[in-house]
Amino acid sequence: LRQEMQLKNFSPHTIESYCYYIQSCLSLASVSPSSILEIHIRDYLSYLQKNGRSASTINTAYSALKFYFQKILRRKFFVHIPRSKREKSLPTVLSQDEVRRLIAAPSNAKHQTMIALLYGAGLRVSELVHLKMRDIDLGRGLIHIVQAKGKKDRYTLMPVSLRPIFQKQSELKQAHDFIFTREGTKYPLTTHTIQKIVHQAAKDANIHKHVHPHTLRHSFATHLLENGTNIRYIQELLGHTKIET
């Protein structure tokens, strides 16, 4: 199973996620993979639903099980199992004033820079933690996002306000160094750490909306759209394959 996913160039995150759901399903069913029946799959997906898992999570589990049992074990019962209907809800978006307050809230300058970059470049939190000095193109005012979601490279905007910071960092760090590192090390910060920083900043800024790193990406796109930026250009900056996204 792992070899098949690696050969298909699945991301490490997808591979681990698929293995987790497959193992979890087999554990709940308490039978061997060759003895799994359609009822076991249905019971497992129902189990996830009853435990409050989102439609997105249930569909990821569905995809994992379908890949394993249909592609690897050649079982054909998925044609009768429906996918979970995804909820359609609008994302939380901050006003420009709320973004300014959020950026200013931390007393730590590095934390301010991370929040400003999440918003000003429309980054995913996973993209932020993997940024290296060589990805910052000071001459062109662009940031090179390397092998992001979907194994795609793209360029996005470098906030002009952060140029002096990146200029100084380029004098202190090597090209292969991560921009944001754990204290006293050259290892990158974790996505969980950045999530905590954003949550705390929202609390300190007295913002009562549910704010997480992806909220800043939504806000980046929304503010560009409100200011008249062409939606196809926004699509390129965000790295979305479909304009509907």
Q: Which features does this protein show?
A:
245 residues; mainly alpha; 3-stranded antiparallel beta sheet; 11 helices
Task: Give the gist of this structure.
The chain has 245 residues and is mostly helical.
Explain what you see.
The structure is a single chain. Helix 3 (38-50) runs antiparallel to helix 4. Helices cover 52% and strands 6% of the residues. The chain has helices spanning 2-7, 12-29, 38-50, 55-72, 96-104, 109-120, 125-129, 163-172, 191-204, 213-226, 231-238, and strands spanning 136-137, 142-148, 152-157. The model has no long low-confidence stretch (mean pLDDT 90). A three-stranded antiparallel sheet has the order 1-2-3. It is mainly alpha-helical and 245 residues long. It is elongated and about 60 Å long.
Topology:
Blueprint: H1 2-7, H2 12-29, H3 38-50, H4 55-72, H5 96-104, H6 109-120, H7 125-129, E1 136-137, E2 142-148, E3 152-157, H8 163-172, H9 191-204, H10 213-226, H11 231-238
Antiparallel strand pairs: 1-2, 2-3
Helix pairs in contact: 2-4, 3-4, 5-6, 5-9, 6-10
